[in-house]
């Protein structure tokens, strides 16, 4: 199988990640729950993972890296923990439902006011529109770092500058970019960065979390066991406990730690992203200009602002038909449909048939993307 669905999850993991998870399954206890050797080993490993993620994301305090099951949980926790009744929130049409749906719930249940900044014809965020909507008194700006439909990147440092000018906080959805695009919270002025482990970070599913700048204080989203202050009526507010109710996925986090070390040893996110971008650009060039093929996103106008995704459609076919043909005829795994990003598809005019998303990863090869390009050309010609 040629696996080009890395924007959904990286199926191929470094062997070091597999080995770390297997070792953890037979050796780690429950971090923060007791003083046995297994519990202490788990606690030390989790601390090392916090430190590794803090370094990777440029978060000044490792204890402000809080783990969760994925970025969806982290985004729910960050958004719900920072937005109060009647608050104004600005987001964008690029967003995944992991941002859109928590905001819709807050609008319904807390009377939050939500405004949506648009994009241009190529799916790039309209920064002027964002600035117009981010009025004084805005509580929060929630924005993706990279579209999961087109791969287009967002200048989150510029977003933070605009948001802070009106007193707003910034929550960044780094689901598509963490591990593959450099992020530095401190220098970029980012208040919260939410990440998932199973995509660009090449670690197990069930890992993710948020990194929070000092001075930003989201309310706990979930409450329960913490391992400390058991007689407190409400969940403790100390870091990182305030955002980590219940047992952590220590086995998965052992894999995340191993993955971050592999990324750093491979040259860091910049090197990983450059390799993946090179493959995606090769794929784009293999289908660009083909009669009957429409490519979405910034590749035709600003390839340097694209990630590792090539999204397209073939005239006369639903996206699911193209994906099925790729799978059955060439053994190519990709993703078709709406990709949990309804506003992006409406903006691109692909609401009815979705789009075929081919997403490159660290373990893909030039031969694989060439085969995918040839397959798209063949489907279009037929």
TrEMBL record:
Q: Which residues form the Aminotransferase class V domain?
A: 2-370
Q: Which cofactor does it need?
A: pyridoxal 5'-phosphate
The terms under GO molecular function for this entry are: transaminase activity
UniProt cross-references to Pfam families, sorted A to Z: Aminotran_5
Per its UniProt entry, which superkingdom is the organism in?
Bacteria
The signal peptide annotation in the UniProt record is: none
List the keywords (alphabetical). Aminotransferase, Pyridoxal phosphate, Transferase
* Entry keyword annotation includes Nucleotide-binding: no
Q: Give the family per the record.
A: Belongs to the class-V pyridoxal-phosphate-dependent aminotransferase family.
What protein am I looking at?
A: Aminotransferase class V-fold PLP-dependent enzyme
Q: What is the lineage of its organism?
A: Bacteria, Bacillati, Actinomycetota, Coriobacteriia, Coriobacteriales
């Amino acid at each position: 199988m040629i696996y080009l669905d890395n924007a959904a999850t990286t199926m191929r993991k470094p062997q070091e990640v597999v080995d770390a998870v297997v070792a953890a399954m037979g050796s780690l206890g429950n971090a923060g729950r007791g003083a046995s050797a297994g519990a202490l080993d788990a606690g030390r490993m989790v601390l090392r993972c916090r430190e590794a993620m803090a370094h990777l994301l440029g978060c000044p305090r490792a204890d402000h890296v809080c783990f969760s099951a994925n970025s969806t949980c982290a985004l729910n926790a960050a958004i719900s923990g920072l937005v109060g009744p009647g608050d104004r929130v600005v987001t964008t049409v690029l967003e995944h439902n992991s941002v859109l749906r928590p905001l819709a719930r807050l609008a319904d249940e807390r009377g939050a006011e939500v405004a949506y900044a648009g994009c241009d014809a190529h799916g790039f965020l309209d920064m002027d529109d964002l600035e117009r909507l981010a009025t004084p008194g805005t509580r929060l700006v929630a924005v993706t770092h990279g579209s999961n439909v087109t791969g287009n990147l967002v200048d989150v440092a510029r977003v933070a500058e605009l948001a802070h000018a009106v007193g707003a906080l910034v929550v960044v959805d780094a689901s598509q970019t963490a591990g593959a695009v450099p992020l530095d919270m401190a220098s970029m002025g980012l208040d919260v960065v939410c990440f998932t482990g199973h995509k660009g970070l090449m670690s197990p599913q069930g890992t993710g979390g948020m990194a929070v700048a000092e001075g930003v204080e989201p309310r706990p989203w979930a409450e329960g066991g913490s391992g400390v202050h058991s007689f407190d009526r409400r969940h403790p507010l100390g870091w990182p406990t305030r955002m980590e109710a219940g047992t952590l996925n220590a086995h998965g986090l052992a894999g995340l730690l191993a993955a971050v070390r592999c990324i750093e040893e491979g040259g860091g996110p910049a090197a990983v992203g450059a390799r993946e971008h090179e493959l995606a650009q090769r794929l784009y060039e293999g289908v660009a200009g083909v009669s009957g093929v429409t490519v979405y996103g910034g590749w035709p106008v600003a390839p340097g602002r694209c990630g590792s995704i090539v999204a397209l459609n073939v005239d006369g076919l639903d996206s699911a038909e193209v994906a099925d043909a790729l799978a059955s005829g060439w053994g190519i795994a990709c993703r078709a449909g709406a990709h949990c990003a309804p506003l992006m598809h409406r903006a691109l005019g692909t609401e009815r048939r979705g789009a075929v998303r081919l997403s490159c990863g660290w373990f893909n090869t030039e031969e694989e993307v060439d085969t995918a390009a040839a397959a798209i050309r063949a489907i279009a010609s037929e």
